[in-house]
Amino acid sequence: MSADKPIVWTIAGSDSGGGAGIQADLATMTDLGCHACSVIASVTAQNSVAVNGVEPVSEAILLAQLDTLLADLPPRAIKIGLLANQRQIHLVADWLLTHIRPLRTKEGQPIPVILDPVMVASCGDALAAQVKMQGKAQGEEGESSTQPKQGGLDFTPFRGVLSLITPNLSEFGRLLGEETTSRDEILTQAKRLSNQLACHLLITGGDKGALWQSEWAEDLFVCNEVAHTSAIHQHRGFCLSSERLDNPNHHGSGCTLSSAIASFLAQGLVLHDAILIAKAYVSQGIRFASAVGAGAGPLARCGWPAGLTSLPLIVDAQMPATSRQSLNFPKLQRPIGVYPVVDRLETLEQLLAAGASTAQLRIKLADDGLADIKPVGAPDESALEAVIKEAIALGRAYDAQVFINDHWQLALKHGAFGIHLGQEDLCSADLEAIAKAGIALGISSHGVFELALASQLNPSYLALGHIFPTPTKSMPSNPQGLKHLAHMVALWAPNCPRVAIGGIDASRLGQVKQTGVEAVAVVRAVTQAESPGEAYRQLASMWEMAHDAR
User: What pTM did the predictor assign?
Assistant: First the structure.
């Protein structure tokens, strides 16, 4: 099997109408560039208007499918859909705990397992035994637990093997055994269920209920610890809102969402990015869906999302609504092109003299534990202000767009042209003061989730990274690579330029420009050159001559 085709399994029920279940999963996984394998847990007799029968397969054939696939086609991710009864839940959970839990991805992480607790078809007919969870008396720890009522399905055997569970709001209520009536209550119960199953939780709110809005489809994402993700985006709840589409043809949307998440995880995306892009994929599928039979039609399969007019709005569920989305920062006065990032005033002046119209001064203090560039003789705090003041003066002298990294208070005090901030800095920086002063703002992002968050602030530019491995900065994220960079660029065009950064040198300029990104940042390619000014001129010329795939 080609390395470009990650293997993804679906363990679910067969939909004879072809709109949901195994059929929707296979179509989605294939559409997104994966090799899809299926384990059929039940056979349903259904069309677009009714479910007329559900029959589980035998335990022997269910296990035989799992064992046979594992022997030759081990998964990079697994999606679980309809399991018809409690025995199947125990059987699949035990098998996964024994055979899949010990496996690891090439990054050393557990194999992602996504559970879509399917209970009711889009037409309203039941597919599985009714699920009902009820609160139990508080234990010695003072926390309540949830256990299944007699006769209902209990998903707790999956504890320890699941990465994510994706109920819609109706299914979430069935899991709890009660209807939630407010957003605060949903968040509290979601955290409880997430802890109970030891996994992340995505509640989709497209159906009517406490999350329902006439103009927006809102989902709730509750995450715990997530590998290769900034700490500020872990152990939190996020509301993800996108435009509600007026199209009745959305059969199999839940199956499509969960199998898309599994497909993106199999291709190396972090969970936050996989969820956001999968949400965009489903929206794109609904937008272009059409009826096949008398009932709701299946989603269209349009490949990796591209050409979106907007990304889902992300709001921290624990924080009160703010006016940050109304902030606006100045647009850049000229194209960025090649964007050198340096740590010395001498180098900055050489680059400006060589014609660099945009540059960044990135100085880390010697006692900064997170420092990514620590030159010998880095200034202490007392000398830092003088250095930044002189850098700002150099920018004015050369009529250049000089950005100051991190030290926003000093940049604001001395009227810098621009400030560059990382995601972690956005929480503490006075963004309103920066915007009011008319100072340009550049923001780092590491993946689509952070890109969407940063774009909500209407910055002057967005940095996308890191593209290639680089020793100049220690980051929790993995390198994006050219393929993911191209997908991010094609996904959506913001109202500001995007700058690719991380491990980029002369040998990679052409490949990076082919992705369609508007600009490129370079660090070692100029700072380690014998003549930084000459190195910049050569890089700028190469970038100008490189082919843009757009």
Answer: 0.90
Residue pLDDT, tens place only, 367-415: 443 334 444 455 677 789 999 999 999 999 999 999 999 999 999 999 9
Kindly tell me the burial class for residue 211, based on how many C-beta atoms sit within 10 Å of its own C-beta (0-12, 13-18, 19 or more): buried
Rounded to an integer, what distance in angstroms lies between the CA atom of residue 260 and that of residue 257? Answer: 5
pLDDT in tens, 284-312: 999 999 999 999 999 999 999 999 888 89
Any residues with CB less than 8 A from the CB of 329 and at least 6 apart, and which? 434, 435, 439, 440, 441, 457, 458, 459, 460
Among the listed residues 186, 175, 119, 188, the one whose alpha carbon sits nearest the alpha carbon of residue 147: 175
What is the arithmetic mean of pLDDT over 172-184?
Answer: 83
Domain stop point among 289, 316, 343: 316
How confident is the model over 54-73, as pLDDT tens digits?
Answer: 999 999 999 999 999 999 99
What was the pLDDT predicted at 244? Answer: 86
Work out the number of other CB atoms within 10 angstroms of the CB of residue 152: 19
What distance separates the 2 farthest-apart alpha carbons in the chain? 78
Q: Regarding predicted confidence, which is higher, 189 or 184? A: 189
Among residues 293, 316, 339, the one where a domain terminates is 316
Domain with 370, as residue range(s), is: 324-545
Q: Are residues 410 and 468 in the same domain?
A: yes
Could you tell me if residue 1 is inside a domain?
no
Instruction: Report how far residue 419's alpha carbon sits from residue 417's, in angstroms, rounded to the nearest whole number.
Output: 7
Q: What is the pLDDT of residues 7-25, one digit of tens each?
A: 999 999 999 999 999 999 9
79, β-bridge pairs: 10, 114
* Tokens 């920086």, residue located: 429
- Cβ atoms 235, 212 nearer than 8 A: no
Q: How far apart, in whole angstroms, are the C-alpha atoms of residue 172 and residue 203?
A: 7
Question: Looking at residue 22, which CATH number applies to its domain?
Answer: 3.40.1190.20
Q: Are residues 354 and 265 in the same domain?
A: no
485 Cβ contact list (under 8 Å, min separation 6) = 464, 467, 500, 512, 515, 517
Average pLDDT on 466-470 reads: 89
Q: Which residues of 234-259 are buried (b: 16+ CB within 10 A; e: fewer)?
A: eeebbbbbbebbebebbbbbbbbbbb
| Integer Cα distance of 54 and 129 in angstroms | 11
**144 and 96 housed in the same domain:** yes
- Assigned domain for 2 exists: no
Helix (H) or strand (E) holding 37: strand 35-46
The model's pLDDT over 439-451, given as tens digits with 9 standing for 90+, comes to 999 999 999 999 9
> What tens digit of pLDDT does each residue of 495-515 get?
999 999 999 999 999 999 999
State whether residue 218 is helix, strand or coil. Answer: strand
Number of neighbours of residue 72 by Cβ within 10 angstroms:
9
Residue 509, in any domain of the structure: yes
Numbers of helices and strands, H then E, in the chain:
16, 20
Looking at the chain, how many residues does it have?
550
Q: Judge whether 403 and 361 are in contact, CB under 8 Å.
A: yes
Domain count, the chain: 2
